[in-house]
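not sure who needs this but someone in the group chat was asking about TetR family transcriptional regulator from Plasticicumulans lactativorans so here u go. i didnt clean anything up, its just raw.
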Amino acid sequence: MARRTKAEAEQTRSLILDTAERVFAAKGVSRTTLADIAQAAGLTRGAIYWHFDNKVDLLEALQARVLLPLEEEFARLAEADDPLEGLRQRCVQDLVELAGNDQKRRVLDVMLHKCEYVDDIGGLCTRVDSHCERLMQQLTRVLEHAAARGQLAIGLAPDTLARVLHGFMLGIISDWLFNPARYDLAAEAERLTSTLFHGWRGMPSA
């Protein structure tokens, strides 16, 4: 019975997150209440509060859906034989998935375009910054591993490249989400990332 109850609780939590994605995307975060989400999900407000204390907790859980797999991948790439190519392929994969995955698109659109980091969700700024800084540290480790294997061109600093890549991906994603009809992101993903990474790889040793 306990196992079934735990499974049911996880199912309810997933329903809340799925519903929150849609409501936040439609109304924006500041104009959405937990009561709105409860009504859309066919749940009571008590069911929402059982899983999430407030909108900040809910938004952080939505963000984790996107970021946690990325953190796991960076940890793997930090020990890969070809970390630079693996990182490039991951960037391509992320852009292709964004173009074809409605859930990922909704979450990122909410976080980048539908969320005002003020007032009652102001505390989210600190949490988002903490997540981003952790990702930057992991990304830097991947690029340090690439440098140690002689994959980076001389003079390129891993921490600087990490910032460049973060800004590149964030810019591409934000720009495309603003108007997805502007171009075919999945079709352009390979060329976009290859253009950036082309100048990073060092010359092979003789």
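also The chain has a mean pLDDT of 88. if thats useful
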